[in-house]
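User: Please predict the structure of the protein below. I'd like the answer in structure-token form so I can feed it into my own downstream comparison script.

Assistant: Understood. Taking the following sequence of 288 residues as input:
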Amino acid sequence: MDLPVISIVTPSFNQARFLGETMESVLSQNYPKLEYLVVDGGSRDDSVEIIRRHAARLSWWVSEPDGGMYDAINKGFAHSTGEIMAWLNSDDRYFPWTLSVVGELFATFPEIEWITTNFPAAWDSQGRLVNCVHADPYRSRSILRGRFLPGGGWFSRSWIQQESTFWRRSLWERAGGRLNTQYPLAADFELWLRFAQHASLVGVDTLLGGFRVHPDQQSRNRFEQYWAEAEAALREHGSPGSKAYGFLRNGAERAWQRLVLALTRSPDLEARAAAFSPGAGKWSLRRR
């Protein structure tokens, strides 16, 4: 199997407490075509020393002031060449099998343009897996209506986990080729909205990455700002549905979508999942 090059960017600033564990979660997988880039914002703790210890296995790294996390990620991607792209923040982690699964899926299914897990997970500050849930089906129309931004005035109950999301460079370029730094906290969500306008998101029936929950997180301490930015992005790129509409749709949507699919085979309504069949010994795509 001709596996694709996977480019992973880790932005970091004063995260020495977790950075080594994050980097090991990428490098210890020994994926044969890994391009790993670390962009440090001029940390004043031991981060640079940790990066230097791993420098021989990095494709590129730098430590210098930047314009924030998303500026750092853009800088890293500008130095990358891989067909498959993702970023992993300096306090999060992959699972030991993540890159092999991702590489195999993109190599096996050229029609897949971006993927994420169907089981978003969370680590605690000690690195223990403490939470795992099952996500709703990822339909482009649902993404653009706010179903994956919990907490709004519309019906929503799930999210797209950044730590588990990977995409083709061709999709990245069609969607603008950079993260929008006008959203200092929610540029990830804004990027998903742009992706959803171009391609269907495929859910994968395995754990891929985990979000670390700890007291110093920006997203946790500044949640109201994150949510306000995400709502603004949703109203710019999508059309959030009302809560009443959402509850009604939740009860009837599966029957309705089955009927529409039977008549039109509309790809926008057909959520897909990648699942491994032990009997066949390979991955397959199925409808959700």
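That's the full token string. Residues 1-92 form a domain with the Spore Coat Polysaccharide Biosynthesis Protein SpsA; Chain A fold (CATH 3.90.550.10).
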